[in-house]
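Lab notebook, bench 4. The sequencing result for the construct came back, and we need a structural model before the next group meeting so we can plan mutations. Quick request posted to the team channel:

Model the 3D structure of this chain.
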Amino acid sequence: MNLKIFSSIPHIIITIGYWLNRVNHSIVICYEGGLDENGLPCDTRTPAQTERLTDLLTILHKMFPSAKIVGHRDLPGTTPKSCPCFNAHEVFGYIEKL
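Done. Here's the predicted structure in token form:
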């Protein structure tokens, strides 16, 4: 079962749910973008999106301090993917240490 929360943060959608056939729960945060003008994977985050994602991940980390910050592409067993078109742990992993 997945529960979608359409946040008040522009261009960001939060989905809370679980992976099918997995015990682990997850919170999925999607941002608008990720493709270049040719439809190819590309990091298109704006400074405002990065700031809002930082704020959101900081809040979620306080709620779930043992959670790991990773991109969909970095999850075990996923089909090779580009999303989120950047290394989420490199960019936001420092939040896990706050």
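Helices lie at 47-63, 88-92.
Will bring this to the meeting.
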